[in-house]
Amino acid sequence: MSEEVKEETKRKFGFYHRKGEKIKIVFTDGKAVTGTYLFASQYEIIIETEDGREITIFKHAVKYVYVID
Known about the structure:
Blueprint: H1 3-13, E1 22-27, E2 32-40, E3 44-48, E4 54-58, E5 62-67
Antiparallel strand pairs: 1-2, 1-5, 2-3, 3-4
Protein backbone atom coordinates (compact mmCIF):
# COMPACT_ATOMS: atom_id res chain seq x y z
CA MET A 1 0.00 0.00 0.00
CA SER A 2 1.51 3.33 -1.02
CA GLU A 3 2.06 6.18 1.43
CA GLU A 4 -0.45 8.30 -0.51
CA VAL A 5 -3.19 5.69 -0.06
CA LYS A 6 -2.38 5.32 3.66
CA GLU A 7 -2.62 9.09 4.16
CA GLU A 8 -5.95 9.16 2.31
CA THR A 9 -7.28 6.39 4.57
CA LYS A 10 -6.13 8.30 7.65
CA ARG A 11 -7.94 11.44 6.55
CA LYS A 12 -11.15 9.63 5.67
CA PHE A 13 -11.56 7.24 8.57
CA GLY A 14 -9.59 8.90 11.40
CA PHE A 15 -9.45 6.11 13.97
CA TYR A 16 -7.64 3.53 11.81
CA HIS A 17 -4.48 3.84 13.94
CA ARG A 18 -6.49 2.94 17.09
CA LYS A 19 -7.12 -0.67 16.01
CA GLY A 20 -7.22 -2.99 19.01
CA GLU A 21 -7.86 -0.24 21.57
CA LYS A 22 -10.93 -0.02 23.80
CA ILE A 23 -13.33 2.72 22.73
CA LYS A 24 -16.68 4.03 23.86
CA ILE A 25 -19.21 5.11 21.25
CA VAL A 26 -22.03 7.41 22.33
CA PHE A 27 -25.11 7.53 20.13
CA THR A 28 -27.28 10.53 19.28
CA ASP A 29 -29.95 9.30 21.72
CA GLY A 30 -27.43 9.27 24.62
CA LYS A 31 -26.95 5.51 24.88
CA ALA A 32 -23.41 4.13 24.68
CA VAL A 33 -21.53 0.95 23.85
CA THR A 34 -17.98 -0.03 24.77
CA GLY A 35 -15.75 -2.41 22.87
CA THR A 36 -12.49 -3.04 21.07
CA TYR A 37 -12.10 -1.10 17.84
CA LEU A 38 -11.65 -3.42 14.85
CA PHE A 39 -12.32 -1.47 11.65
CA ALA A 40 -14.00 1.57 10.15
CA SER A 41 -15.15 2.23 6.63
CA GLN A 42 -16.83 5.21 5.07
CA TYR A 43 -20.20 4.59 6.73
CA GLU A 44 -19.63 2.19 9.62
CA ILE A 45 -17.50 1.31 12.62
CA ILE A 46 -17.00 -2.30 13.69
CA ILE A 47 -16.20 -3.15 17.31
CA GLU A 48 -15.98 -6.30 19.39
CA THR A 49 -17.82 -6.18 22.71
CA GLU A 50 -16.55 -7.72 25.93
CA ASP A 51 -18.74 -10.79 25.39
CA GLY A 52 -17.09 -11.44 22.00
CA ARG A 53 -19.83 -10.17 19.67
CA GLU A 54 -18.85 -8.10 16.65
CA ILE A 55 -21.13 -5.11 16.20
CA THR A 56 -21.47 -2.88 13.14
CA ILE A 57 -22.40 0.69 14.03
CA PHE A 58 -23.49 3.11 11.35
CA LYS A 59 -21.70 6.43 11.69
CA HIS A 60 -24.81 8.55 11.18
CA ALA A 61 -26.06 7.29 14.58
CA VAL A 62 -22.87 8.31 16.44
CA LYS A 63 -22.63 11.48 18.50
CA TYR A 64 -18.98 11.00 19.51
CA VAL A 65 -16.28 8.37 20.09
CA TYR A 66 -13.46 8.33 22.61
CA VAL A 67 -10.63 6.03 23.62
CA ILE A 68 -10.78 4.46 27.08
CA ASP A 69 -7.47 4.52 28.94
